UniProtKB/TrEMBL annotation:
Keywords: Phosphoprotein, Sporulation. Residues 1-111 form the STAS domain. The keyword Phosphoprotein applies. Belongs to the anti-sigma-factor antagonist family. GO terms for biological process: sporulation resulting in formation of a cellular spore. It comes from Koleobacter methoxysyntrophicus. This is Anti-sigma F factor antagonist. Signal peptide: none annotated.
Length: 114
């Protein structure tokens, strides 16, 4: 698994390549938390273009971040979701807490108000 994290103002962009599962979801959570402590992050944007698989640990990690972000008045978004991961998002209920964007640019535009 590879993680690419970028800061776009108050939005943290997280691209995950590989699998988000019980082997690495805690590591992803820790990396996000570290970045949130460095800068005033309000929104999270997950880019799942290269995410091959996500299990319940990955779902739980995202829900945990949602609760943190929501308490600060922020939002969570997702972009570039493949069919298999899209199905997991729908079945798990993540679709109710994450807005799906057509592109990273669209998400940043909405989240940052530019």
């Amino acid at each position: 698994m590879e993680i690419n994290i970028k800061n776009y103002g108050k939005t943290l962009y997280i691209a995950i390549k590989g699998e988000l599962d019980h082997h690495n979801s805690e590591n992803v959570r820790s990396l996000i938390r570290e970045e949130m402590l460095k800068a005033p992050i309000i929104n999270l944007l997950f880019d799942f273009n290269d995410l091959a698989f996500m299990d319940s640990s990955g779902v739980g990690m995202i829900l945990g971040r949602y609760n943190e972000i929501k308490n600060n008045g922020g939002k969570i978004g997702v972009t570039n979701v493949g069919p298999q991961v899209k199905r997991i998002i729908e079945i798990s209920g993540l679709k109710k807490v994450m807005k799906t964007f057509r592109s990273v640019k669209d998400a940043i535009k909405e989240f940052e108000g530019v």
